[in-house]
Amino acid sequence: MKKSLIALAVMAAAGAASAQSSVTLFGIVDATIAHGRANGAGDASKTQLTNSGYNSSRIGFRGTEDLGGGMNASFWLEGSLGNDSGVAGQAIPTGNQTAVNAADGTGLVFNRRSTVSLAGNWGEVRIGRDYTPSFWNLTIFDPFGTNGVGTTMTLNGPAGGLASPAATGVFVPNGSRNVIVRASNDIGYFLPANLGGIYGQVNYWMGENVSNGAVTEDDGKGYGLRLGYGSGPFNVAVAWARTNYGITAPGVGGDYTTWNIGGQWDFGMAKLMAQYARDKKDSTTEIDGRGWLIGALVPVGAGEIRASYSTYKLDNGPGADPRTAQIALGYVHNLSKRTALYATVAHARNKDGASMTLNGATVAAGSVNFRSTGYDLGIRHSF
Question: Omega of the bond prior to 173 within 30 degrees of 0, cis?
Fold first, then answer.
């Protein structure tokens, strides 16, 4: 009798403990038929089955434990999926630098987010790999959410896709989105959610290099902040970030600084969005880039029309300043809360030496000032 009572007490205690914490498996599988073409010299079109045309394909685990007194601890582990080929993970730059770990990308790695947090009425401290403060404005105030062929030029431009071949990757990290989107070794503080619509965060990320006095000892170290106000149909935010990179040769390295502002207004019949971004690289020759977007989301029955116009210009020093303007139009039809069909078309026009192509289209080396068109057709399922 006593053993039975003890067993029941243990089971009740275990049930009470487990009720205070939870772990969730979540993810998105997004398959896309993508086509791109250009009309430059030696142009070649490309059609492929890829992924993440509407939402980024991913798989993740997240959990929360109630610590009492209004405090909780949580974790978030999220990795990318290439469901078109079954590949999981993606190479992660070492210490926020341009080099990547050789072992990454061969299996599931939590490259999208890998954090542990402690939160309460005072806010949240989050540690690990996470989004940079300045990226949030680019994706939240983009009708296409920086996914697929409709992605804003304010993201594609500084990531290295805009410029002519001689200037590709002019911003660091060269030819990638590295700290433009996420930073590893990050410590972030987020304001609490009870400030009457005011929200914000401040982050510091480490380069994790040896302190030996070398010009590269601070490579990959940076910091950023974001402050916004959202209430009812209105939302606006401004962000700033800077990452250090030593100048090792003319045109190589240089600290990268970015700031942007974005906002939206939900009129019910349509949600209007706009953003402006400015980027700078302090190299042997200072290089500036700037761009803007205006767009809209229009609900139509069970679906939504998405539209945007974005442009980005690169100040490449003396001579022409390459620029690309893109118009994008799409439609998403929700079959349920978790499953959607979508289609997107985008058209980019290059000027003054720019060489942007869409959806993998190619042109001959040195071809500039041409136009490119891309199409996405896909299905997204979340779980």
Answer: yes
